[in-house]
Backbone:
């Protein structure tokens, strides 16, 4: 029993290391106060290693730190686990990459990159700030993976070690290849351009030997462009043709190839300059378009599933001894221990302890659920409070939650084409170009067969759809950036196009339409006097339980009193004496409310409730209601004009009436849908030809998010977990959803308008080509000009439209 | 006029040098994390040898 005094008047000293308040348990060291021994040790460690500069960078930079590791990381000594986590090892040195969410400021970078001072075994440490990653190379003779992790945890930078970090994602070097291609194409283009100038600019004939030098050099410089930089276009066109699909890459590849072959012919056989400058310029522009399109958000992850959430290891209890084993080694029947803030990796039955499980990652419901012994515990729940003992019912891969993931038919999105517009245009374009080329051949053959070849190749060159191929990456790339600046992060540019096709929107309720962290409180029972309310406030403000915090918020403003004999029992409630009267807040049993009558007595699992007893008599209960987000009505009305709206919730229909009167006309309401049923609901909409946008937040929406045409994960904090999706929407940007959708549609219109512009240029080019008069100079002017016009038009119009909608 | 042969040769070598520098920069990973170096450059390379003076923290 800890007597709590009213500490409000006492000026609190704060810990030199972490900035927390220093209580009685505080430690003095080196003339400074620390809240705990851990902070003191970290300070001493830093001073000892001459890293005291850490404290000059940032006030109280240390965050949470504990030194009681015990066997917590012992599983890291397991060679199999170690092998899975290491990026690379050669026996002497090993490299490992950790994700450390705590990295938040420059002093984090400073400290983490100087770990070699703390442990000489650490050879090299490098932080990627945006990705919140730390890459460490260490000497195996001097230190171990377990020790490295323990050091990090002691410093308050405990790495996130989950099932996903054990499954190594291939380190992506796609971007690197693109840079190589661009660098080489740029180099070759610049030089070929310089070597072509004399030909274009001089009026008099150029010396034959010089001309020979220029063209030969150009030819050599063009080889890396066609063989390396442009190789992707040939490969993709060929792959498309083999699947009998004509994509936009087909006419592009034809254009590039004809440009090169005709130049080869003219240079080698006719001694003329050829079109190599146009060709390399074209390839460079196309590659730059790709780079612009490849914008990604490093700090976000769109592919997370349960594995990036589940721990890698868990404590098991066999015959009274605790061992830490990898999660994959857990079998049905095993007994596991879940400590405060640990996540249940498998479904199980609660054997011992007061379970209070936070399923917010699973359902979006923010309040922990109390569970009694003998009840089911589902994987994904986070235990809040004391340690509990659970008997595993099913293996990890077969739990309720993971099944959900494995049920969704293979993600066909990877196979799905990047852009439907591009491919549809590519098809018509190719047919058009072939038709025109045939026409040119037919017209010229009777007149002058030698010119027919000239005209046909000229048509193929001029019709090369580079402007069209550039318009899509630049328009959608720009839209993606504007969305990102305003709180909607897209996985890639093809999502813009899919957003524009959406005609139905499905919402999840809890955590999406309602606030995940706020709720309103209603008291049911015999009314409380304000004196009683102030007693309750005095009690709840000492507790960190989420419901206590909501109550504190709601009752704030009332006078506070001293509490004596304050006790918080995890999973049960709070008790304490105020002015000599015993106050109990908590579960029905805890507050002796078994026999309480009145409206609050009927149990419905919908609302979290806290029972109140004062002086031994039950007074009633506080009910917590979800609060709907601001601007919801306006948004629903705005969206209702264009889209069919559905609400799918896992909850019982207790709020159907309230919701129905609010927007029953516009929204189609569905309740009591299990995660699998949510997915099936979306599938049934799709079978009726609808294109569905799903907006959800928890893991229980994961199946629906993947099934939908566009899955948008909703989050209060973009740094926190969000299930696999196509886009992540910040809660602040919720109201702008309608504007986002509008801008996506307008972007598609801009792309179509830019097609029209580029067709005008193509028509102009064709008139030269038909006459067989396409000189290298005309090609060198016309092709970049059309591309630049289109790029300028699309980016400026997207920006203008975005500004009109009030986007930054 | 034949000096132009030499000049073009030189210009290609210089440009090639820049190309190689760029390819090296990409290869060494400089284009993968473009944010952290901006933080790193602000740190002192050598912390003061004497016991560092610490800033007093206001609670």
Residues:
């Amino acid at each position: 029993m800890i007597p709590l005094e009213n500490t409000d008047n006492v000026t609190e000293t704060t810990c030199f290391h972490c900035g927390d308040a220093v209580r009685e348990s505080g430690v003095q060291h080196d003339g400074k106060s620390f809240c705990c021994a851990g902070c003191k040790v970290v300070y001493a460690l830093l001073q000892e290693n001459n890293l005291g500069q850490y404290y000059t960078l940032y006030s109280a930079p240390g965050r949470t730190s504990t030194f009681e590791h015990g066997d917590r990381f012992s599983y890291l000594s397991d060679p199999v686990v170690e092998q899975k986590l290491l990026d690379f090892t050669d026996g002497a040195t090993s490299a490992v990459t950790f994700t450390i969410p705590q990295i938040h400021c420059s002093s984090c970078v400073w400290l983490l990159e100087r770990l070699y001072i703390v442990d000489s075994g650490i050879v090299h440490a490098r932080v990627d700030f945006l990705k919140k990653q730390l890459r460490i190379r260490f000497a195996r003779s001097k230190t171990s993976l377990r020790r490295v992790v323990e050091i990090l945890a002691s410093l308050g930078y405990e790495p996130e070690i989950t099932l996903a970090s054990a499954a190594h994602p291939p380190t992506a070097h796609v971007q690197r290849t693109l840079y190589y291609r661009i660098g080489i194409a740029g180099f070759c283009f610049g030089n070929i351009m310089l070597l072509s100038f004399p030909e274009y600019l001089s009026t008099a004939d150029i010396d034959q030997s010089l001309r020979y030098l220029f063209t030969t050099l150009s030819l050599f410089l063009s080889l890396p462009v066609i063989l390396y930089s442009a190789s992707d276009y040939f490969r993709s066109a060929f792959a498309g043709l083999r699947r009998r699909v004509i994509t936009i890459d087909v006419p592009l590849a034809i254009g590039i190839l004809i440009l090169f072959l005709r130049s080869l012919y003219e240079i080698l056989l006719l001694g003329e300059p050829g079109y190599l400058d146009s060709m390399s310029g074209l390839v460079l522009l196309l590659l730059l378009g790709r780079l612009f399109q490849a914008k990604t958000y490093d700090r976000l992850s769109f592919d997370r599933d349960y594995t990036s959430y589940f721990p890698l290891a868990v404590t098991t209890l066999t015959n009274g001894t605790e061992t830490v084993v990898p999660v994959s080694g857990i079998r049905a029947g095993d007994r596991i221990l879940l400590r405060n803030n640990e996540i249940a990796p498998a479904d199980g039955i609660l054997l011992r302890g007061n379970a209070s499980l936070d399923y917010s990652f699973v359902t979006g419901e923010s309040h922990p659920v109390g569970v009694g012994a003998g009840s089911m515990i589902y994987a994904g729940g986070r235990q809040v409070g004391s340690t509990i003992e659970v008997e595993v019912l099913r293996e990890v891969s077969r739990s309720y939650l993971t099944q959900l993931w494995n049920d969704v038919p293979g993600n066909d999105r990877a196979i799905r084409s990047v852009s439907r517009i591009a491919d549809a245009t590519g098809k018509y374009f190719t047919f058009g170009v072939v038709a025109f080329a045939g026409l040119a051949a037919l017209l010229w053959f009777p007149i002058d067969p030698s010119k027919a070849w000239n005209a046909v190749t000229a048509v193929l060159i001029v019709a090369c759809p580079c402007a069209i191929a550039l318009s899509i990456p630049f328009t959608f790339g720009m839209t993606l950036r504007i969305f990102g600046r305003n709180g909607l992060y897209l996985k890639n540019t093809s999502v813009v196009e899919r957003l524009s096709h959406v005609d139905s929107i499905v919402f999840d309720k809890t955590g999406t339409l309602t606030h995940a962290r706020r709720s309103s409180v209603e008291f049911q029972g015999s009314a409380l006097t304000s004196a009683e309310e102030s007693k309750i406030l005095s009690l709840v403000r000492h507790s960190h339980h989420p419901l206590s915090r909501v109550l504190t918020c709601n009752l704030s403003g009332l006078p506070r009193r001293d509490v004596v004999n304050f006790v918080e029992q995890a999973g049960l409630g709070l008790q304490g004496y105020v002015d000599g009267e015993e106050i109990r807040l908590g579960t029905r049993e805890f507050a002796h409310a078994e026999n309480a009558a009145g409206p609050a007595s009927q149990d419905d699992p919908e609302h979290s409730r806290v029972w109140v007893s004062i002086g031994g008599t039950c007074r009633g209960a506080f009910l917590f209601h979800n609060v709907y987000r601001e601007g919801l009505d306006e948004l629903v009305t705005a969206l209702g004009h264009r889209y069919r709206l559905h609400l799918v919730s896992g909850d019982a229909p207790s709020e159907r009436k309230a919701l129905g009167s609010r927007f029953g006309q516009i929204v189609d309401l569905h309740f009591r849908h299990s995660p699998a049923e949510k997915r099936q609901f979306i599938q049934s909409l799709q079978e009726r030809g609808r294109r569905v946008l799903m907006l959800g937040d928890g893991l229980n929406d994961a199946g629906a998010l993947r099934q939908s045409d566009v899955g948008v994960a909703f989050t209060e904090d973009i740094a926190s977990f969000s299930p696999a999706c196509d886009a992540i929407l910040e809660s602040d940007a919720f109201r702008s959803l309608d504007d986002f959708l509008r801008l996506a549609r307008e972007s598609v219109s801009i792309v179509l308008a830019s097609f029209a512009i580029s067709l005008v240029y193509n028509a102009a080019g064709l008139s030269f080509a038909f006459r067989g008069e396409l000189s290298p100079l005309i090609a060198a002017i016309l092709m970049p000009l059309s591309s630049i016009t289109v790029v300028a038009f699309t980016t400026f119009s997207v920006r203008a439209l975005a500004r009109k909608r009030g986007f930054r | 006029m034949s000096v132009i042969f030499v000049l073009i040769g030189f210009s290609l070598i210089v440009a090639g040098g820049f190309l190689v520098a760029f390819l090296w920069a990409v290869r060494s990973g400089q284009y993968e994390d473009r944010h952290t170096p901006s933080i790193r450059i602000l740190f002192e390379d050598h912390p003061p040898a004497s016991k560092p003076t610490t800033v007093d923290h206001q609670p």
